[in-house]
Amino acid sequence: MHAAEAAGGGAGPGTENLMLTKVDSMALFSKNRWLRILIMFALAVPALLLTACSNQMQPVAFQADGRPLKLSDWHVVEARDGKLVLNQGVVPYDLNTPLFTDYAHKLRTIWMPKGVSATYDPVDTFDFPVGTIISKTFYYPKVGGKDGNPSDVARSYDSSHDFAGEGLDLAQVHLVETRILVRRSDGWAAMPYVWNDAQTEASLARTGAVLPLTLVGAGSTREDFNYVVPDESQCASCHAQDWISRKIHPIGPKARHLNRDYRYAQDSENQLEHLMKVGYLSGAPAPASAPRNANWMDTHASLDARARAYLDINCGHCHNPKGAANTTALTLDISAAADRHLGVCKPPVAAGRGTGDHFFDIVPGKPDDSILPYRMASADPGEMMPEIGRSTVHREGVALIKAWIAEQSGSCITIH
User: Fold this and answer.
1) Could you give the CA distance from residue 223 to residue 214 in angstroms, rounded to a whole number?
2) Contact present, 292 and 260 (Cβ < 8 Å)
3) Half-sphere exposure of 116 (CA within 13 A, CB side)
């Protein structure tokens, strides 16, 4: 190399080897850096997959026998990250007119194994296959947010803040119990589960439970009551469609109760159509051709349709020709003719002091002289109807039945 080049900043003797060494070192550093990144990524992927898997619910577990001690053993609904989450394949549903249970809100779900479906029936409960699991979670909107007293619950029909997707937002609601109905090879089995104070798990309560709660209504009105979780032996009182066999069946999943729209996670859709689409129901006609009960709160429907729907779901499972109250000759399901079968001018059979000294179940035009609303308006165990399933009086339900009776024409003849 020329001296002029060295003087001008060019490479001097030995500089070329030094430059090569620097270049090789930089290349090696670059390769090592990418190698380290690849190694770190390779190590991280299994951990990420493990975390993702741990956050997923295990598949729904059909329990062919026994009584699982925890609700989570079924993997139908679980409390996760501040929400009550529905598992994959678990479909929520609702009824046109629901059964009254001390103003509790309810999340109903259904699940079936792959490859089977229920068979449609226009009148009775659908014929569900072995493996079907139906759940019903009873809960209340919270009062005072997350810092409120958990025993204070809202007397409210507003459910607009209850949901997180298809599940429930536990920041907004207080879980009380979840009931499981499972179709096994020998028939249906019922199991009640009561939620813990932490709202993280529900435990089997075969002997039932009594939970002191306070309903807080408009204007901060308060009503203390005991929420009663029925024991397993009481399930047949309502769920036995035939009082001779006393085998239990679901009450709600009938065409007339399910024929309505439901807001699913993706979109709103008729429930019968949705159950057909997901493969849980076969043989159903178009919704327009299926029976449909009225919504008892829908003032656009006739008073008669609303009252009959209310009596059907709240009373008809017992008061029908095969039910637990068949000896009373009072039929309150939707099929009853509007005559003595429905209670019009019908004297009681064995009501005892539940008559309130009235002579007939229904006196047209005179609700205050009628036994039916009298028993509905009572919370006395010796007088009230229904006999179980509530500790409070459904004021709005009583008002509906009284208005329905007041609208009726005719008179009853009393022979002294």
Assistant:
1) 5
2) yes
3) 13
List the chain residues with pLDDT less than 50.
Answer: 1-23, 25-30, 39, 41, 44-54
Provide the b/e sequence for 40-60 (b: ≥16 CB within 10 Å).
eeeeeeeeeeeeeeeeebeeb
CA 29 vs. chain centroid, Å, equals 61
The whole-angstrom distance between residue 159's C-alpha and the CA centroid of its chain comes to 12
3-state secondary structure 227-246: EEECCHHHHHHHHECCCCCC
Q: Using an 8 Å Cβ cutoff, are 94 and 108 in contact?
A: yes
- What are the tokens at 24? 């090789």
Q: What residue has token string 């179709």?
A: 183
User: Encoding tokens for residue 173?
Assistant: 């609601």
What the block records as the tokens of 2 is: 């020329």
Tokens of 81: 């990250």
Of the candidates 406, 399, 314, 324, the residue with the CA atom closest to the CA atom of residue 365: 406
Determine contact, residues 265/343, Cβ cutoff 8 Å. Answer: no
* Cα 106 from Cα 104, distance rounded (Å): 6
Instruction: Tell me the sheet residues that pair with 361.
Output: none
Pairing of strands 167-169, 163-164: antiparallel
Give the H/E segment covering residue 141: strand 133-141
Is residue 170 within 8 Å of 84, Cβ to Cβ? yes
For residue 265, which of 98, 85, 106, 103 has the smallest C-alpha distance? Answer: 85
Contact criterion met (CB below 8 Å) for 385 and 315: yes
pLDDT at 352: 73
Please state, as a whole number, how many other Cβ atoms lie within 10 Å of the Cβ of residue 364.
18
Residue 34 confidence (pLDDT): 54
Which residue reads 């204070």 in tokens? Answer: 152
CA distances from 366 to 344, 371, 403 (A): 11, 10, 10
